[in-house]
């Protein structure tokens, strides 16, 4: 004879807190941010499907990895409301693994650049790699490089000049 589970199909916020190890206030916060959903009981109390426990587990793992809630939500939003499957988690964890690798690479680069600032203190826009890290056009020379490129690609028609009153 098959066993009939006595576990409740829906959980109160207190039960979710107890089973997930997360404070009630945090559960409310996750819900406010749209990371988890609840329904209302006849007495207007929050009730959560059992799948919320896996969602909270994933949120906690992501938080430990420093993944912003906005990114977590973007991934969770792609999933159906049912419990998150093993396959779903494999896709998410692979994406976050790649994201963390990129972040680690970026942090290692930042650490190395920061090494050049120790004992310097110039904070020079021209010389300090941390002040202007994305200035890839600086190698081309001084001036507004993007405007110079645009002017070369789309020169003003000859004989037509802007009126000073326009
Ligand atoms: S503060 Fe001088 S190089 Fe960064």
TrEMBL record:
Keyword Transferase in annotation: no
PROSITE patterns documented for this protein: HTH_MERR_1, HTH_MERR_2
Domain of life: Bacteria
CDD domains xrefs: HTH_SoxR
Keyword Metal-binding recorded: yes
Entry's Gene Ontology BP terms: response to oxidative stress
Domain HTH merR-type span(s) in chain numbering: 10-78
Keywords: 2Fe-2S, DNA-binding, Iron, Iron-sulfur, Metal-binding
GO MF: 2 iron, 2 sulfur cluster binding; DNA binding; DNA-binding transcription factor activity
InterPro entries: DNA-bd_dom_put_sf, MerR-type_HTH_dom, MerR_fam, Redox-sen_tscrpt-act_SoxR
Name of this protein: Redox-sensitive transcriptional activator SoxR
